[in-house]
Design goal:
Helix content: 25-40%
Strand content: under 5%
Oligomer: single chain
Amino acid sequence: MLEILGKTDIDFMGKRRWAFLFSGIMVVLGIVAVIQIARGSANLGIDFAGGTAVQRTISWSIPARKSDRPSGRSFSRMPS
């Protein structure tokens, strides 16, 4: 059999109280987070809140037809 770490002697049952304490703290933090999100007082940041929409108007017109474009180039997905 493949042995990666060699002989290990970890007392998992002796550390179970610390594991229960850590697990309980994580559960309480999760419940608090869900309550904060439900109340709307959590700062979710731009990723989850939708960000900011920026709109800009321009003063010149954009030609829509191929013949109106200065270069006369057509794009592959634009209808001619």
